[in-house]
Amino acid sequence: MTVSDNNEAPGRSMYETVEQARARVMDTHRVGAVERQHALGKLTARERIAALADPGTFREIGALVRPDRRLPDARSDDAHADGVVVGTAAVNGRTIGILSFDFTVLGGSNGTVGGAKVDRQARLCLEHGYPLVMMLDGGGHRIQEGLDSRHFAHGFQFFQLQSQLSGWVPTIALMMGPGFAGPSNFAAMADLVVMVDKTSTMGIAGPALVKAGTGEDATKDELGGPAIQADREGIADIVAEDDESALQITRDFLGYFPNNSSEPVPVTDCTDPADRRAEQLTRLVPPNPRRAYDVRKIIGAVADAGSVMTLKPRFARNVFTGLARLDGRPVGLIANQPNHMGGTLDSDACDKMAHLISLCDAFGLPLIYFIDVPGFLVGPSAERTGLARRSGKLLFELGRATVPRFSVVLRKGYGLAYIAMNGGRSFEADLCVAWPTAEICAMSIEGAVDVAYAKKVAAADDPELARKTMIAQFRTQLGPVYAAEGFGIDDVIDPPDTRGVLIDALRRSPRRHRDVSPPRVHPVTPI
């Protein structure tokens, strides 16, 4: 043996020891745990990363950590990586940070050392300006480590880091298993929340804690399954069929956004002609304002082919919100949906739209509105939802936005709801146009006549005829030509030209408008 061999042998032996320790945390050495995860219909934490990331790009940090051996019931021998796989990877060639919680390790609970890894990755995203993807599959804070005030009194810094990441880099939460307690709060602060059908849950507390705290019996799905959190509460944006679908949604969503708010939006090559006329648009909106239609057909005909991504499709279905591309440029879309509640705005619709405005304005995506709104929902039940406050939140977010904004009045544009839908000059839209089917006024003609002219109608020789005559007379004043004559809109356009008109306006618009707000630290959000 040479001197060189003697010098190299100890180092090689030590390296092999490290590699053996690293190998023990990999799926290939944990066959039983992997099989149990698969039996639940779920990928493992590492399989999820492999499915999301570009091949060979994941770089892990903290693979060798274990819980503090001094803590009671720490179970450090089987707490591989302390239950969370952390690192960076490339997705479509762009760097992202990843937190993938491992349900096979102590139920995916969050331990102290694992929490330090989570904080470390969040800080790297904050400092280097790249997105954060959280794959959540576990039961929140690890109880065994939390029953000690010397440990728990420090709290958890990740929520502060999330608030600092908000609006700086895109953040995505994938609920891929049980997600009660902490994981639900992680998700509530994310830009996109995806739940996996049949396996994921969200909520402040799971069945056992609810039973202990209130005595109530409730299943995990009753507390926080997709039917609750996506359909009724709207906390989740999309429900995916399985893990693979959720990961593909993540890849697609990231493609609309820059790595951070200092960068321009990613424009892609577009083979769909900018001047393509969509002749079908002349037939999609019924001239009778009482007839419904599906606004998604209009959006699909205007946007680049295959580029539309719908957000919160199961929540507040009276409005459509989503992302798309026009001539390869990402945009945010907001539209009234006449085939549900006639497109009327209620509290949930206001929350849904306000969130999209905030998201798009944070990352520089222009906003395009398709307007067919009969007004806000009225009545005692609507008021009990806090509609006045939540509609104020919608108006507030639109007033704060500095990205270009465009509006197309398809049919009805009534009252304050018209203004809340970026109608006319209310929020200095970069373009406001109308179709020939548009009618714009303070409220429905029938309701206006019944309220403002009730005495005059009642005094007529033939009240019913007088009412019909008055309605017909006012209706002649509502069309788009009248709106254009008063210069409340820029033009009346032929529906098939809508795509070309919007793309032309996008090309002429700045990336952002200058913020003309007075010097201030933080406007007070009406929440």
Tell me what the structure shows.
The protein is α/β, with parallel strands linked by helices and 527 residues long. It has helices at 3-23, 31-39, 45-52, 112-128, 143-146, 149-152, 158-165, 182-188, 207-214, 220-224, 226-232, 243-254, 281-284, 295-302, 347-363, 380-383, 387-400, 415-420, 445-452, 454-459, 463-475, 480-485, 498-508; strands at residues 59-61, 84-91, 94-101, 132-136, 171-175, 192-196, 238-240, 309-311, 319-326, 329-336, 367-373, 405-414, 431-434, 439-441, 491-492. Strands 8, 9, 10, 11, 12, 13, 14 and 15 form an eight-stranded mixed beta sheet that branches. It has a seven-stranded mixed beta sheet with strand order 1-2-3-4-5-6-7, with helices on both faces. Helix 15 runs parallel beside helix 17. It starts with a helix and ends in a 19-residue tail after the last helix. The mean pLDDT is 90.
Question: Can you describe this structure in just a few lines?
Answer:
By secondary structure, the protein is of the alpha/beta class.
The biggest sheet amounts to:
8 strands, mixed
- Which structural category fits the helices and strands? alpha/beta
| Quaternary state of the chains | single chain
Beta-strand content bin? 15-25%
Unreliable runs: none
Percent of residues in helical segments? 25-40%
Distance between the termini: 75 Å
Q: What's the β-strand tally?
A: 15
Mean pLDDT: 90
Q: Outline, from the CA principal axes?
A: elongated
**Tally of individual helices:** 23
Radius of gyration over all CA atoms, rounded: 27 Å
